[in-house]
Amino acid sequence: MNFLAHAFLSFNHPEILVGNMISDFVKGKKKFDYPKKILAGIHLHRAIDTFTDFHPATKEAKYYLKDAAGAYSGAFVDVVYDHFLANDASQFMETTLQLTAQNTYSVLSNFQQQLPSPFRQMLPYMLSQNWLYNYHSMEGIQKSFDGVVRRANWFIKHRSLKHAFIYQCAPAFVNVFLHVRVLHPLLLRWLKAYFFCLPYYLRWQQVVHRFP
Questions:
Q1: Distance (Å, rounded) from C-alpha 60 to C-alpha 189?
Q2: Domain that includes residue 20, residue range
Q3: Cβ atoms within 10 A of the Cβ of 200, count?
Q4: Among 20, 30, 99, 180, who pairs with 45 as Cys (CB 3.0-4.6 Å)?
Q5: Is the Cβ–Cβ distance between 68 and 165 less than 8 Å?
Q6: pLDDT tens column, 53-94
């Protein structure tokens, strides 16, 4: 999961950030248990995923990891996207990346009571290992890869392929980066339009949910 991208694309809105970060942990109608702005963040996360997952740049990026990762190529592309975002000098210097990470952790900690249990249990590890900041380093990315591998049944059944996968990914980074450079400006332009429309979208949601 590309936590850094979703934090970055919350644009310093605390409730939007919380919803954006927890969205994958909120299933079905549970999303309607959250306040309006957190719900907007949940919807934003899913809109971002739809935009990126179906964009040709992402499909091409996944192609370079397909032989090594199979159906999990998308999960690893997410991690790679965060790596290049963390190293994008037009968005972050080292100090601003660290500040973004710490601000994100602070907001999430302030909303602990509203975090889904699995996310709340994961949060101390995110903080202690400084996941968001460490996406900038190859060591941090390898740890993120290891985390995906541990959670993926296919890799658990093929443990001998784990290290081969890591090495196969290295040359693919350059190819994936070319597609990230195409995708990020498009995504930022789309999000500006999304946030412009967000107040109208929230009012529409209120109307829709009055009806069964």
A1: 21
A2: 3-208
A3: 9
A4: 20
A5: yes
A6: 887 777 777 776 676 677 777 887 888 788 878 888 878 887
